[in-house]
Amino acid sequence: MPSVNSTPYATNTKTVEWLEREKVNLTTITIFRNGGKVNLNSGTYSLIKPDGSKLIDEAAVTINANVAEYTHSAASLPNTLQLGEGYIQEWTLNHDGGHPDANFTYRRTVSIVRRRLYPVVYDGDLTSVYSDLASLRPSSLESYQPYIDDAWFTIIRRLRTEGGGLEYLVISPESMFEAHRHLSLYLIWRDFHSSLGQSNGRYLDLSQEHYKLYQDEWKRINFIYDYDHDGKADEPDLRTAKTPVVYLSNPGLFGRFRYRTTRYRS
């Protein structure tokens, strides 16, 4: 029977996958090895619910420029579907590097959400601080978007790993603005410094300055939060600090807790 090998292929999964309920959602996966995309031949896609049953069962994927794609219809993600954590994608792909008849299975965690959280920082927010960034940008880059995106995913991961809450329940994205901008500038200046191969200099000083500012802003982040997944601010006049009180058994009264570790809500 054909078998897969132990080569550690990468899916470049930066954070949990979000699927919005009652909307058409395109989800994709790309497999990488040795700095490039792995050639994909065919594959199937499954979406598994928290109880283990399959919402989508081995549906054929589309291969476009060695990217596997699957489009969820709005009807496949109805408003009766439970919101929150615990969903899993399974991509079963046939690609180069294994036996021609062998498939590799890649898993990715999914959150079913009412709304995604989108960033609010763009290039103009960086050049408003340093007007010379536009002229300093390498010719290989059309914008500073790769740094902005990397900073955004770092913030999302940090929110989750440090118990700051579920990003898709934050309904005041502007609360992340300063932390996101400073982290983006830190990544840019650090990269510029690295390309010079020097032990010190202006770019290093700027990167360190913005990293400190990022850490300071991170401590001050507070936002308006949707505690019960209903799409509305539960306490619009009370901004929630990102560091929550976590109850390991029963939570306190509604007005007393910051964030409750409920897996999902209907």
Summary of the model, kept short:
The chain is of the alpha+beta class and 266 residues long.
Q: Total helix count? A: 5
Please state the average pLDDT score. Answer: 87
Number of domains: 2
Task: Note poorly predicted spans.
Answer: 243-266
Radius of gyration: 21 Å
User: What is the helix content?
Assistant: 10-25%
Helix/strand-derived class? alpha+beta
| Morphology | flat
Report on the biggest sheet: 6 strands, mixed
Could you give the order of the helices and strands?
EEEEEEEEEEHHHHHEEE
Strand content: 25-35%
Distance between the termini: 43 Å
For the secondary structure, the number of strands is 13
Can you walk through the features of this model?
With 266 residues, this protein is an alpha+beta fold. It folds into two domains: 17-113, Sandwich (Immunoglobulin-like), CATH 2.60.40; 116-266. It has five helices and 13 strands. The protein has helices at 123-127, 133-136, 145-161, 177-196, 202-220, and strands at 17-20, 25-29, 32-33, 36-37, 40-48, 54-60, 62-64, 67-72, 83-95, 104-113, 222-223, 240-241, 264-265. Strands 1, 5, 6, 9, 10 and 13 form a six-stranded mixed sheet that branches. A three-stranded antiparallel sheet has the order 2-8-7, with no helix packed on it. A hairpin with an 8-residue loop joins β9 (83-95) and β10 (104-113). α3 (145-161) crosses α4. The longest helix is centred in the last third of the chain and has 20 residues, at 177-196. It is flat and about 55 Å long.
